[in-house]
Amino acid sequence: MSKQNIKYNSLSAYLIVFCLYTALTIILTYPWITEFNTHKLGDDIDGSMLIWNLWWVKKALTSLNTSLLFSDYIFYPIGSSLTFHTFTLLNGLIAFPFLLITKNILFIYNILTFSAFVLSGFGTYLLVNYLIKDKFAAFTSGLIFAFCPYHLVKVSFINYLSTQWLPLYILFLIKSFEEEKSKYLNIFLASLFLVFNALMCEIYGLFAAIFTLGYLIYYLKSNKDYYVRKSVLIKCLAIFSLFLLFFSPILYSMTKFLSEKGDKVLFSTLENARFESADLLAYFVPSPLHPLLGNFFSDLTQNFSGIFQETTVFPGYIVIFLTIYSLSKIKKDPLTKFWNLSLLISILLSLGPFLHIYIIELFLPFRLSIPLPYLITFYIPFLEAVRIPGRYGVMAMLFFAIIAGYALKTLFSKIRKKSILWQMLIIIIILFEYIAIPFPLISEMKIPPIYERIKNSPGDYSILHIPLGWRAKENLGYNFTRFQYYQTFHEKRILDGSLARIAKEDTDYFDRAPIIKSIISLEYGKPLDSVSIPEERKYVTEFLNFFDIRYIILDEVYERVFTHLDENSFQNLDKYVNEIFPVRLIYENTKQNRMRIKDAYEKYKKSFVLETPRKTPMREDPFYEKITSLDTTFKVYEVKRDNSSAGIMINPEAEISNLYLAKGWSEVSKKDNGIKSLNKKSLLLVRFNDVINRKIFFKASALRNFNDENFKLAINLNGYKVADILIKYGWNTYSVNLPEDFQQKGINKIEFSKIQSYQTEDIPIGFNFFEFR
Questions:
Q1: Sequence-separated (6 or more) residues with CB below 8 Å from residue 121
Q2: Which one of 519, 520, 578, 581 has the lowest number of neighbouring Cβ atoms within 10 Å?
């Protein structure tokens, strides 16, 4: 056969395999394909945030002076870094050109979700076929990795669903070690897929790096030749050097964030790790989504700790059999031993800090906990960022798939008669173990019609959502993540937001802000005192003008996981809006629709949320079908604007000053006669409705004398240095010109940076007032 025919046959085989994985994705997620334009796989909680990621990449790349890794369209006006958020930047970059063509962001997101299944299977097929040169075994390995229950339950989290880059990285890592002919191409592709893993999910990038270390140790131990070892070390160094080059902008942002904010953003608790650990029994219990076996084993799965999306790790009984067969039959091959050892380590790490079997943690006569390797990794920098031990299950599933490929090749080399029938039977049994048809985790993602009016209302302004909240490591208030999804449609700024990890100071800003504090108190069911409302009426216009709020939207939030507002709290919030804000009602949901919402949620709550013990199987969770299809928008108010402009005077003793004093400031101190700049950098926010030459006046003093030394203070406006000022001991008034070229319409950021020697760095600077004119 000619080389051309061999190449043609290989391409044909690849195309057939790719089409088979595509067909299996359609079948195993049915009926999603029939609702592709309007529904997404998984819930709308994290899903709304992950869809928002695509929109923000497009927004940042098409707007001037906008950072990819920082957004003030949420957490407005203070904004928040996206550096340690589950940003799925790779998906955003892939989606970007398509979002320039179509505005259907949900369709693009669904294409990316769909491709995660197909490419996970295809990538594993390429890897295993390279290792064992057996197309059937490789195809089965791809099927195992792409459609195992661990993968299917991850549909709410596209960052964890996107496992396709792991097998492709391992493939080209191995090829770069083994092949001299195309070593430069293989090194480049290995580094590229390592970057893809890190850009898609930082944890998968970390897992890929850990695998590299393990495989390098195995390879060096297996090859005694000095020149081979030297060559492999150089190749490995080249891969990581290219990775660091490609990933350096993100690494720089991470390093800067950690140096400025500290590493608490990565911190998790050991208790959380114990809760979100995989149960050893979970490796032998079918998925709770299985239409038959899920019900049969529901008494077991419902007692496992953690949420099922994080702790479902069933590889299938056929795969378990093939793994045991591999251990007993393929003992001489050192590479197979490496895969088996890697599988064992991954399983042990997924079990968390202490062994638990059917939630039992205390064993032996002395009732002792049995510590596991994860306990060590919990105290290792960056490895602690994994947070949820069950996430190591992704590597376990990949190693299960690879080992199954080896076992199938060995098994069918001994079976001559009717081998095709046996092969088909194995695939059918595996698919039966994995099946979840009709796929239950599908959410409708329609956008309420009222947002069309807001979208068409011109201007760069903000929306105040109620309930109001921020969901991240530090939660505040009640956050409805769909608001963030709606933003991808109307493209206006919102005060609330949901991110995976943020600095605590970002939520602290809103916790101090007047009026916002009252809204959150009412959300928590805490009544306001009689003084609050009259006082807040005095500065409500300043509040509205500062945030430039044009609409206030009340939504009857009903979410699957997080507590929604009770009816009394919601009515009190509506009453508060009408008492405080100058608004007019422009939309109200119908009574009939509100009754349907209430009835649907009450039935859902009784039949599923409050069911103890739970009798309804997980796959019959009515939230997806009944709740996500509801338009829960209650009322929409348009704010009556007061465009009167006046000079801006910030008195730190006034409650409203907390809007302007964004970060790095102390509480008001009568002893110090004002406020202190606590950090090396303190941030002041101020809104300018026009861009003209103006000055800032402020009264300041070093709060302790040090050899009559003056203290240097650098002042930056929107990132541009405008002055260095020497602050004396003793209260004096200072003024700084704010050049027109550095100003912007809307919120301006004025940063005060202390430039001090190590002898004076602990001496704070006090401020008494700020004025702009």
A1: 21, 24, 142, 143, 145, 146, 147
A2: 578
Q: Are residues 411 and 516 in the same domain?
A: no
Say if 440 falls within a structural domain.
Answer: no
Residue with tokens 């590493």: 263
Using alpha carbons only, what angle is made at residue 242 by residues 241 and 246, rounded to the nearest 5 degrees? 120
Structural domain boundaries, residue 757 = 648-772
pLDDT at 618 over 80: no
pLDDT digits (tens, 9 = 90+) for 368-387: 889 999 999 998 888 888 88
In a domain, 202, yes or no: yes
Which residues does 418 contact at the CB level (< 8 Å), separation at least 6?
A: none
Last residue of a domain, one of 370, 403, 434: 434
Q: How many CB atoms lie within 10 A of CB 592?
A: 8
624 located within any domain? no
How far, in Å, CA of 373 to CA of 242, rounded? 31
Token pair of 545, please? Answer: 């003008």
Q: Are residues 205 and 77 in the same domain?
A: yes
Tokens encoding 294? 């899920």
Angle at 151 between CA 601 and CA 217, to 5 degrees: 145
Q: Which residues contact 692 (CB under 8 A, 6 or more apart)?
A: 740, 743
Which pLDDT tens digit goes with each residue over 442-476?
999 999 999 999 999 999 999 999 989 897 655 68
Contacts of 87 (CB under 8 A, 6+ apart): 53, 69
> Contact 379/106 with Cβ under 8 angstroms?
no
| Residue 352 sits in the same domain as residue 417 | yes
467 vs 519: CA distance, rounded Å:
8
Phi, psi (degrees; rounded to nearest 5) at 82: -105, 10
Phi, psi of 225 (to 5 degrees): -65, 125
Q: Which of 536, 654, 635, 632 is nearest to 583 (CA)?
A: 635
CA distance 714 to 560: 49
Long-range pairs of 86-89 with CB within 8 A, sequence gap ≥ 24: 86/49, 86/50, 86/53, 86/157, 86/159, 86/201, 86/500, 87/53, 88/50, 88/53, 88/54, 88/158, 88/159, 88/162, 88/199, 88/200, 88/201, 89/53, 89/57, 89/199, 89/200, 89/250
Distance CA 356, CA 397 (A): 20
Nearest residue to 41 (alpha-carbon basis) of 162, 164, 166, 201: 162
Q: How far apart are the first and last CA of the chain?
A: 85
Residue 446 falls inside a structural domain: no
d(CA 484, CA 468): 12
Contacts (Cβ under 8 Å, ≥6 apart) of 311: 276, 277, 278, 279, 282, 304, 305, 390
Q: Are residues 349 and 465 in the same domain?
A: no
What's the domain count of the chain?
3
- 207, 107, 193, 115: which is closest to 161 by C-alpha? 115
Q: What is the CATH number of the domain that holds 676?
A: 2.60.120.260
